[in-house]
Amino acid sequence: RAEDQLVDSLTYREKEILYSLSDGLSNKEIAERFGITEGTVKSHVFRLYGKLGVKRRAQAIARARELQLLE
Fold first, then answer.
1. Cβ contact 48:17 at 8 Å
2. What string of H, E and C letters represents the secondary structure of 3-70?
3. Which of 10, 30, 35, 50 has CB atoms 3.0–4.6 Å from 14's, for a disulfide?
4. Which sign does the torsion angle of CA 52, 45, 58, 55 carry?
């Protein structure tokens, strides 16, 4: 299934970022949580959007819930 391949293609860090997005954290807060730069967070978010086929945070969270990536 395409959904299974998508889940497998998400890196561990991308999954952490996705969970943080679903917690409502800003890029700055995510960067502070993981000890990385905001630019790095933006890169992860951009790749997540591409993998999920979305353009905004709310869409990413909704898509992740559809795919049961968030519990």
1. yes
2. HHHHHHHCCHHHHHHHHHHHCCCCHHHHHHHHCCCHHHHHHHHHHHHHHHCCCCHHHHHHHHHHCCCC
3. 10
4. negative
Residue positions counted in the chain: 71
Cβ neighbour number for residue 20 with a 10 Å cutoff: 20
Cβ-based neighbours of 14, under 8 Å, separated by 6 or more:
44, 47, 48, 51
Which pLDDT tens digit goes with each residue over 12-70? 999 999 999 999 999 999 999 999 999 999 999 999 999 999 999 999 999 999 988 88
41 burial (CB, 10 Å; 0-12 / 13-18 / 19+) is buried
pTM of the model: 0.85
What is d(CA 62, CA 65) in angstroms, rounded to the nearest whole number?
Answer: 5
